[in-house]
Design brief:
Elements lengths: L39 E2 L13 E3 L17 H7 L2 E3 L10 E3 L8 E2 L2 E5 L7 H8 L1 E8 L10 E8 L12 H13 L16 E8 L2 E10 L13 H4 L11 E10 L3 H9 L5 H16 L2
Parallel strand pairs: 2-11
Antiparallel strand pairs: 1-4, 2-8, 3-6, 4-5, 6-7, 7-8, 9-10, 10-11
């Protein structure tokens, strides 16, 4: 499950984060502003269930990483550095979920859904859409009452589309930990059953000649160790344990190397297939999904 990319070498000193991100923890607790660490999911049974927001990219991360862009080593490029990418052919699949981060914006649908790319940042998320795998939705805490700039992520491991993308057994905890394992380039799968609020991991990843160091720290108190209110709680809970363990992984990301501007622009331009290729790939994906 661990997927690492080659790491270029070289020093890099990023810009300091903006002053507005001077929070106690690198984020504001959504519940302090009337928000929730559970998403709103449409048409659950029973009604009102949600999915855990179980990963946060801290606002103490380098400001360049927190920019919601592929360019200049931004957030999307960071996701690609550890094996995740944007949705298949840029087309959103599945239902939206909403989150209230307690920042005054109320409930908003996810900024985007990001999927495991199976080693191919261009087309691999099409495979994840069909076969299932790790994925997450994310939101940015940027409302006027709690403008941290932190990234909140609801991560889980889903079944294939033929099984309605239901969540695998223990899939919220596993999805979180497999993401952390990849983001910190661990050589083995993280031991989910043994992780506590004192667990930390660190490592480097790279994509498009941008290199990042990620430190993950697990914290308690934002989510409950519970099945109450959790979507798919009947099937996700394992061996009498709760559907989620109540831990949230907080990632602090530093950019430690970047290319010169000309090589970066070239790499980013090569990311998007164009014209007839887009049309052909979209038609192929649609046919595959319709046959399931």
């Amino acid at each position: 499950m661990v997927y690492a990319r080659s790491l270029p070498k070289g020093p890099y000193t990023p810009a300091l984060p903006p002053h507005k991100r001077s929070t106690n923890y690198g984020y504001y607790n959504p519940m302090d502003g009337g928000g929730s660490m559970l998403t709103q999911v449409q048409d659950t049974y029973p009604a009102g269930l949600g999915e855990p927001i179980n990963v946060i990219i801290s606002a103490y991360s380098d400001s360049q990483v927190l920019q919601n862009t592929l360019a200049n080593g931004g957030l999307i490029n960071y996701f690609q550095s550890f094996g995740f990418s944007t949705e298949c052919l840029g087309q959103h699949a599945g239902s939206d979920q909403a989150a209230d981060l307690g920042d005054g914006n109320g409930y908003l649908n996810e900024t985007a859904v990001i999927r495991w790319d199976y080693g191919d940042a261009n087309l691999g998320t099409c495979q994840e859409t069909v076969e299932g795998g790790n994925h997450f939705r994310y939101w940015i805490q940027n409302g006027q009452s709690a403008d941290s700039g932190a990234i909140f992520m609801a991560t889980s491991y889903e079944m294939p589309i033929a099984e309605q993308h239901n969540i695998v057994v223990n899939g919220y905890n596993l999805g979180r930990d497999w993401l952390v394992g990849n983001a910190t380039s661990q050589s083995t799968i993280l031991p989910t059953a043994n992780i506590t609020n004192t667990s930390t991991y660190s490592g480097q990843t790279s994509f498009n000649n941008f290199t990042y160091t990620t430190t993950a720290t697990y914290v308690s108190g934002l989510l409950q160790n519970s099945s109450n209110g959790i979507n798919h709680y009947q099937s996700v809970a394992v061996n009498g344990l709760n559907a989620i363990d109540g831990l949230v992984a907080v990632l602090t990301v530093r950019m430690v190397q970047q290319p010169d501007s000309s090589s970066s622009s070239s790499a980013e331009r090569s990311y998007h297939p164009k014209g007839l290729l887009w049309t052909f790939l979209a038609m192929t994906c649609a046919i595959v999904v319709s046959l399931l």
